[in-house]
From TrEMBL:
Catalytic residue list: H10 (tele-phosphohistidine intermediate), E88 (proton donor/acceptor)
Keywords of this entry: Gluconeogenesis, Glycolysis, Isomerase
Assembly notes: Homodimer.
EC number: 5.4.2.11
Lineage: Bacteria, Pseudomonadati, Pseudomonadota, Alphaproteobacteria, Hyphomicrobiales
Full protein name: 2,3-bisphosphoglycerate-dependent phosphoglycerate mutase
Catalytic activity entry: (2R)-2-phosphoglycerate = (2R)-3-phosphoglycerate
Organism: Hansschlegelia beijingensis
Function (record text): Catalyzes the interconversion of 2-phosphoglycerate and 3-phosphoglycerate.
Listed transmembrane segments: none
Keyword flag Manganese: no
């Protein structure tokens, strides 16, 4: 039995482009982000994949990425479940701020601590540990059973909500998790064993070439 899970971070959003803390705000994809999503679909099609079910967050950038991937696969009507458990980490008072401006306000060290520590949250927001506590139970309860039944499953979400899943799937320490880079629009394909351990991982990260200015 094939037990296949595919994780995809959404394509570049307008706030990614502007170097803003995005969190639970809801900007659209850029033109580049739209193309990254389509390219993700093309890469998955080249792998011969078709999905039985899809999951995404309540935020448009992830939903649109999911939609474009499925369109490339000819699966426009596939059942897709949306849940805020898969939303991006909530950045609290940092949300909407340019990252350089945030450093000017709070200092380089404090902003770096908020961004790169596992268990220190920005004012009014979530730490990565908080994001894991929100995302992982939903994955175990709602997503993993589909995978273990042999349903090829797509999850299109966000950098930090996906890291929360990857931490468990790849058995990463908090320190190793913080170093785990996820490119926008780059699928990661997991083949799973019946006991939910990982049999193999294929990371299709191949960023698009820089766009001409």
């Amino acid at each position: 039995m094939d037990r296949r899970l595919v994780l995809v971070r959404h394509g570049q959003s307008e706030w990614n482009l502007k170097n803003l803390f995005t969190g639970w705000k809801d900007p659209e994809l850029t033109e580049r982000g739209l193309e990254e999503a389509r390219e993700a679909g093309r890469r998955l099609k080249a792998e011969g994949l078709r999905f039985d079910i899809a999951f995404t967050s309540k935020l448009r950038r992830a939903q649109r990425t999911n939609q474009l991937i499925l369109e490339e696969l000819g699966q426009r009507g596939l059942k897709t479940i949306e849940d805020e458990a898969l939303n991006e980490r909530d950045y609290g008072e940092l949300t909407g701020l340019n990252k350089d401006d945030a450093r000017k306000t709070w200092g380089d060290g404090r902003v770096l601590l908020w961004r790169r520590s596992y268990d220190v949250a920005p004012p009014g927001g979530e730490s990565l540990r908080d994001t894991v506590a929100r995302t992982l139970p939903y994955f175990v309860r709602e997503i993993l059973p589909h995978v273990l039944r042999g349903e090829t499953t797509l999850v299109t979400a966000h950098g930090n909500s996906l890291r929360a899943l990857i931490m468990t799937l790849e058995r990463l320490s908090p320190d190793a998790l913080l170093e785990r880079e996820l490119f926008t629009g780059a699928p990661i394909i997991y083949e799973m064993n019946a006991d939910s351990t990982i049999a193999s991982i294929r990371d299709l990260a191949r960023p698009l070439a820089p766009q001409a200015q």
